[in-house]
Predict the 3D structure of the following.
Amino acid sequence: MKQKNLTLPIIIVSVAIPLAVAFILLVPHVKISLGFNTSALPLFHALLNSSTAILLLASLYFIKNKQIGAHKTANLLAVVLSTVFLVSYVIYHSSNPSVKFGDANHDGILSEAEKAAAGSLRYIYYFILTSHIVLSGVIVPLVLFTLQRAFQEKFDRHRKLARITWPIWFYVAVTGVVVYLMISPYYV
């Protein structure tokens, strides 16, 4: 059976997702009330990211040991968890104010005293966060094109792209957890 070429839909999704997330995060607007408490979602996001990282490690193990079915299952589960993460992330950030690293009194303003207390750890946090955010946008098309090549049974092309996709996706998953652990003391 001939597989459809999904290049255009992948490009559209790959552009739309980062633009939508950037809009939610950067455009000042009134946060919406969803009728339920979303304060536990950052922990949920960290759990999703850590589970994704574990699935990616399993996927690598499975493919190295020629366990193709298990490799496919691990990757599809990682895609599902990443999708759940993305939806939940949008829900959280559309209903909660941004948290500033070092904002110990939770007033949304980072005073000079709070900056001093956070020290150089702020720069490490923002470096990790920035690399995480940039690569989060990059990983969407990489994952989708890698999956498409697998489903089209273009395994040489799949393997070649997966060698780029896997480490970036793993980095994004792991740094998602690191970012959560670093910022969690500043959640209200």
Observations:
- The chain is about 75% helix and 0% strand.
